[in-house]
Amino acid sequence: MKVLLVEDEPQLAEVIARSLVREHFMVEVARTKAEALLKVADHTYDLILLDIMLPGGSGLEVLRALKESGKQGNVIIISAKDSLDDKLAGLDLGADDYLTKPFHIAELNARVRSVLRRKQFGGSKAITAANVELHPEDRTVQVAGQPLALNRKEFDLLLYLLLNKDRLVTRSSLAEHVWGDHADEGDDLDFIYAQVKNLRRKLKQGDAAVEVQAVYGIGYRLVET
Predict the structure, then answer these.
(1) What string of H, E and C letters represents the secondary structure of the chain?
(2) For labeling, which of 12, 64, 95, 102 is most exposed (least CB within 10 Å)?
(3) pLDDT digits (tens, 9 = 90+) for 29-53
(4) CATH number, span 2-119
(5) pTM
(6) Domain ranges across the chain
């Protein structure tokens, strides 16, 4: 899953990013208001960790731009400003949670999991389709109760396809959510084809009652069979 960390303190940003990567998130970092505005305009994120006090302006302006764009972003404000007015302003603009600095990384990780589970997974710890059950928190997949072994990219592909079940997902959006900024390194996106091919094979071998259909020249769609 893709996270945007908007934080101008280099050491704190590094600690948070390293912790999120260990939790199997893909992390991009913006250090100024201008950089954050560009990223939220050009990309879609599963979660945004947003500082309020940024070079060039307030993080609340980033939150306002996100709201005005109509994008559905899960946002946790992380800031040293702990006044009630700041918290209310952030929540009124659509933030899902507010964590005051300094904080323990373990608490941040718990808040992240809570927000994602509540907003994106509808409160459930598992995402299901037919006989396939995916658990985002411990990164496991079961087919008819039996474990299905997937590598990291195959898991991320399946997660994104399950979240968009029955909807056409373009190759570029799939690349962006699974590979992030590195997706631009392969213009022909052949690396997606290889990973999808492996995922299809494993789902078939596991007798999964779902199928990843290819829509020629556009992308993929996951459907129940």
Answers:
(1) CEEEEECCCHHHHHHHHHHHHHCCCEEEEECCHHHHHHHHHHCCCCEEEECCEECCEEHHHHHHHHHHHCCCCEEEEEECCCCHHHHHHHHHCCCCEEEECCCCHHHHHHHHHHHHHHHCCCCCCCEEECCEEEECCCCEEEECCEECCCCHHHHHHHHHHHHCCCCCEEHHHHHHHHHHHHHHHCCCCHHHHHHHHHHHHHHHHCCCCEEEEEECCCEEEEEEC
(2) 102
(3) 999 999 999 999 988 888 999 999 9
(4) 3.40.50.2300
(5) 0.60
(6) 2-119, 127-224
